């Protein structure tokens, strides 16, 4: 059996991607008739699945993948898609250019006539140069691109990773633009209906798209898209992962060692599972022995204070500042701080509500009663959707990840 490497942040190579085959089958199945939204929190394996779809296309699809995290305008989205098209299939790009897509035709001519532009990024520069008013004409170019694909009859799957980030960037730049884009995008997905359209969209991202759109009053803008939720790894899969990784490296372990890892992880974020298992192997390399439950506990204790965990977990802390608006932002920190100090049975919803109200009062944020409740309910929903917390039993909540809880307590409680 081939030894599988540890992945500690980068997408998992399709050949090393365990546990996702049934999900990938299901996504392809849904794509036959619908556009798809892959929904899952940070660091759980969305991009790995998207890469798998892109590298092992089915049903004759040409799959074009783009990460739009750092973009802020629809014009950049289409430029990126066209650039990736060009990289993946120059034949098809030429065909699209020939089918009446003037801007693309000009860009290809610019590339052909210039020696320099063959260098990396040359095509994108040519694209930009072929229309000095790209931002104004984004809709026209978007329409032409889709019309050209439809004319070619070639099934094309457009994967847009981190779309919610693009939407948030657009929102911060110009709210009218984001509404315009959402309306355009919806019309494009419905006309023609997917079952008669060679174009398929697969979108994904870790910021919760539904709550992002909810705040804009635009949830209806995506209600035609099939949501495929990436499954949380099961207990058996976590145990299997730890066992296979240890056995693949001939690391001996007591039977309860993988169970201790499972317990310490809480609901497993795949990245943390990888980091912890890698550390178990490293600790064994430093001191070869049969790994016991106690050794696993020691690895977790060290991991919580490590730079690696700091780098990966800090993100969860910072993103609240980026994406939550007041009063939810500071209240989120207050609630998570309290929760990180709770016992393993978490805190009741009622206790969290009174912490929320206490926080608002302390900050002199004046809200009437119905607004307080509404803000609290939204905050709880966002914290759940963004994977900070889970309802552990009736009306009781705890951190979704045991590792994150311990880390939060250490640094932020
Ligand atoms: N099937 C899997 N088995 C084990 N570990 C996995 C699996 N899928 C993902 N991971 C772990 O999660 C990490 C992140 O994977 P990936 O980039 O695909 O996730 P993501 O959800 O796209 O993350 P982000 O939210 O940062 O975009 C990988 O480096 C690896 O540690
Ligand atoms: Mg990703």
Outline the structure in words.
The chain is α/β, with parallel strands linked by helices and 413 residues long. The chain folds into three domains: 210 residues, Rossmann fold, CATH 3.40.50; 71 residues, Helicase, Ruva Protein, domain 3, CATH 1.10.8; 104 residues, Orthogonal Bundle (Arc Repressor Mutant, subunit A). Helix content is 58%, strand content 9%. It is built from 19 helices and eight strands. Helix 3 packs parallel to helix 7. The protein is globular, with a radius of gyration of 24 Å. The chain starts with 20 loop residues before the first helix and ends with a helix.
Whole-number radius of gyration? Answer: 24 Å
Shape: globular
In sequence order, what are the helices and strands, one letter per element?
A: HEHEHHHHHEHHEHEHHHHHHEHHEEH
- Lateral strand order in the biggest sheet: 2-3-4-1-5
Number of strands: 8
Quick recap:
The protein has 413 residues and is of the alpha/beta class.
Helix/strand layout:
Elements lengths: L20 H11 L4 E4 L6 H10 L6 E6 L6 H15 L1 H9 L3 H12 L8 H8 L8 H15 L3 E6 L1 H11 L1 H16 L8 E7 L3 H7 L10 E4 L5 H14 L8 H9 L4 H17 L6 H13 L1 H17 L4 H13 L6 E2 H14 L6 H17 L3 E5 L2 E4 L2 H11 L1
Parallel strand pairs: 1-4, 1-5, 2-3, 3-4
Antiparallel strand pairs: 6-8, 7-8
Helix pairs in contact: 3-4, 3-6, 3-7, 4-5, 4-7, 5-6, 8-9, 11-12, 11-13, 12-14, 13-14, 15-16, 16-17, 16-19
Bound molecules: adenosine-5'-triphosphate (ATP) and magnesium ion.
The site of magnesium ion (MG) has 3 residues, from α2.
Which labels suit this protein?
binds adenosine-5'-triphosphate; alpha/beta; single chain; Rossmann fold; 19 helices; binds magnesium ion; 5-stranded parallel sheet; globular; Arc Repressor Mutant, subunit A; 3-stranded antiparallel sheet; Helicase, Ruva Protein, domain 3; 413 residues
